[in-house]
Amino acid sequence: MPSKAQIVATIGPASGSVEILRKLIGHQVDAIRLNFSWGTYEEHAGYIANVRQVAEELNKRVPIIQDLSGPREQETSGHHFDSEKEILTAKDLTDLAFGIDQKVEYVAMSYVGSAEDIKKLRSEMAKLGASIPVIAKIERKIAIDNVDSIIAEADAIMIARGDMGNEIPLEQIPFTQKMITEKCKAAKKPVITATQMMLSMVESLEPTRAEITDVVNAILNGSDAVMLSEESARGKHPVEVVEFMERAVNEAEKHEPKMDINPL
Questions:
Q1: Does some domain include residue 1?
Q2: Long-range CB contacts for residues 84-92, cutoff 8 Å, separation at least 24
Q3: Which residues in the chain belong to E strands, given as ranges?
Q4: Cα–Cα distance for residue pair 5/51, rounded to 1 Å
Q5: So what's the pLDDT on residue 74?
Q6: Given this model, what pLDDT does residue 2 score?
Q7: Is the pTM of this model over 0.85?
Q8: Residue 78: how many CB atoms within 10 A of its CB?
Q9: Residue 200: CATH number of its domain
Q10: Ranges of the chain with pLDDT below 50
Q11: Which of 34, 35, 85, 147 has the largest count of CB atoms under 10 Å?
Q12: Whether 12 contacts 6, CB under 8 Å
């Protein structure tokens, strides 16, 4: 039985083909994220076309989330946040124009600091003749401090635990995640819990016990959606990771059958 809470899968080289997408969407992937920190427009356009083909075949609504990279500096071992740059970069604006042309259903804004950042993104969309729902990514200390006004302004929230772990002590992340989730539920705004949920499955054929526990607890705490990043984008087992995540979400929902979900 499909879960009520949603699964968001990031699509990339390991998962962007029609064949793999049929399996992912058939195994309860509910929304697709495209990470614009990587890839070319040609690649992203191909992924979008494939997602829409499969969604039509399966008669399923599968919204596409364009995740803008923000002032992110890529490094060999990953990336870091460049606080000296504008939150909405020139690259973001070019990417946004592409996303609008491709008719993406959501735009995720990285490194949001305040509600004003979201308003600026909406203004830039308006200049391009578009109005697309905005997902605010909470990953900075200042965003945690301003979370009430950010939730009020955004259409949905993503708890982006990766960069958040560079801003606050790691042991505070579970409590911050729970606090943001509760505020989103009160505001009836969709909240996505993201980053490293089943990271071991980039290589391994099954998740760790801790990862399964993390997914279950995210749902029990009220997450409307849980997200896969590199696990589904470039991992060795994109289909299996979705299957494990769906099993974990379903098990959590057995224990909270009256869970109220705000879908994307």
A1: no
A2: 87/111, 87/112, 87/113, 87/117, 87/120, 88/117, 88/120, 88/121, 88/124, 92/36, 92/68
A3: 6-10, 31-35, 64-67, 72-75, 78-81, 106-109, 134-138, 156-160, 191-194, 225-228
A4: 20
A5: 65
A6: 85
A7: yes
A8: 10
A9: 3.20.20.60
A10: none
A11: 34
A12: no
* Residues near 145 by beta carbon (within 8 Å), at least 6 away in sequence: none
Residues in the chain: 264
Q: In angstroms, how far is the first alpha carbon of the chain from the final one?
A: 19
Q: Residue 3 is which amino acid?
A: S
Cβ neighbours for 112, distance < 8 A, ≥ 6 positions apart: 87, 118, 136, 137, 138, 139, 140, 143, 150, 154
Quick check: is 261 in a domain?
no
Q: Which structural domain, as residue segments, surrounds residue 204?
A: 6-255
| Residue in 145, 176, 171 with CA at minimum distance from that of residue 160 | 176
Q: Count up the domains in the chain and report the number.
A: 1
| 262 part of a folded domain | no
Residue 18: how many other CB atoms lie within 10 Å: 13
What pLDDT, in 10s, does the model give residues 79-138? 667 777 889 999 999 999 999 999 999 999 999 999 999 999 999 999 999 999 999 999
Q: Letter for the amino acid at 119?
A: K
DSSP single-letter state for residue 33: E
Q: Which two tokens stand for residue 97?
A: 């124009």
